[in-house]
Amino acid sequence: MTQANYPELPHLVVMLTYNDFTVADAAEVFAECEDSDAEYWGMKEQPLPLDEMKALFARMKAAGKKTVLEVVAYSEEEGLRGAETAAACGCDFLMGTKFHKSIADYCRLHDIRYIPFVGTIAGRPSVLTGEVDEIIAEADMALSQGAYGVDLLGYRYVGDAVALNKALAARFPGRVCIAGSVDSYVRLDEIREAAPAWFTIGSAFFNHKFGDTVCSQINTVCRYLRAR
User: Fold this and answer.
1) What is the pTM of this model?
2) CATH number attached to the domain at 11-226
3) How far is residue 55's CA from residue 107's CA, in Å, rounded to a whole number?
C-alpha cells in the first residue's frame, strides 16, 4: 500500500473496542454501521469467544470490508496465537504484537498483512515509550524482515506524539497505522497533516467524541478527513 496507489489516505480503521478490549455488543454495533463510509473494521483478540469473532469477521467480509485483528500482547508465543486467531477468522490484517520473524512468516503463509507494534509497549490500555530514532530503527527492521506496516501508538506516547507521528509517517509512507486515542478534531487535523496510511478509532466513538451514534460519528470522521 503506497501513497500513490491510495490517494485518499489516511484510512479510518473502526475498532469495535473500548479500552483495548472488544465490546460485548460488537456484532450489533457493526450491524447498525455496516453501510457507513468506513472500509476497514477490526477488533481486539479479547474477550469475545473465537466462534463469535469468526462469525463477525465473516459478516464484515460479506459486507465488503477489510478486516483487522489487533493483538495486545508482546511475547512471541502470544503473538503466534494471535496470528493463528487472525488466520482462523480470515482476517486481512494482523495488527499489534511485537515483531517476531516467526509471526511474519506465519502471516505470509496465510496471506495476512502483518503490522506489529514498534517501540517499548506496556500495559493495557498500552503506553508507548522509547526514543524516536530507536522507534524508527525498529520499524525499519520489521519492514525489512517481512512486516507489511507498523502499528504506532502515537497518542499513547509519553513524549511528543505529534513529532513522532510525523517522523514515522514521513519515513515510511504508506506503511504506518497510528493507533489509539484519536479522540478530537485537533488530533484528526494532526492525523491529516502526518498522512499515515491508516489510523484507528475505537473508544472515542463509544465516548461520543464525534457526535451521537457510532454510525454517524464514523461518517463524520471520514467526511471530515476528505474535506481537505
Assistant:
1) 0.94
2) 3.20.20.70
3) 21
